[in-house]
Amino acid sequence: MVTEPTEGSEEFTSQLGEAIGTLFSRFDFSITGNLTRALRAAHEHLRDWNRTSMPTEQAGAGASVLALREDVGYVAQVGPSFAIYGDGSRARRVSPATVEAREAIGLATDFRPSISRFELALGESILLSGSRLAYTIQDEHATALMGMDPEEALGQVYVLLKEQRNLGAILISHVAVGSPHAPLASPDTYEQPRSDTQQFQMNTLDEGDYSREPVEPEPRRREPPEASRDPFGR
After folding, report:
1. Is the model's pTM score more than 0.90?
2. CA distance 190 to 71
3. What is the end-to-end Cα distance of the chain in Å, rounded?
4. Domain 2-209 belongs to what topology?
């Protein structure tokens, strides 16, 4: 999962991804049903926060959430979000498909996530990233990215997005057993393909993975110690 706060929402959505994951695990419907209900519950929670918050504290976010069952992947998207699916010979760009799905979590008036289905054949990958990548990567580069070593691919994503705050990306690949890459870290969250020769592996990118030039910190508003400024905070 990759979440992308709308401008000015970073302080209020830092735990959104964790909340969506927790909500997804609580439901017992189909994968698409669980995805939709988890995102909708997070949306309603954040919308309630916005109703009772100051105009300067209105929060919203986009999300791309991938759920796997064997070799079939479902990507739910809402608000600012972007994904790429393919291999080294082709790539498909994936963004929210409807006007309603492009509205952010917490801000949408008609909340309807967009869900895409993919069959992940051996050698294919899905990259989840922020919406800015959609505007900075050309089609031929996206295709080349899908054929790269995962660490190299995420390095290229970093180069394209290094000026963006809250940088994040996840690359899920269907690889042969014996691949030099590590298997998916949390096998309980998906069902493996029925094969002794294939597996999924996951590589992640966040702001701490690559060194940066020091940046002058922005001044932060003072808040009462007891006041949580994250609607998903515990």
Report:
1. no
2. 10
3. 20
4. Phosphatase 2c; domain 1 (3.60.40)
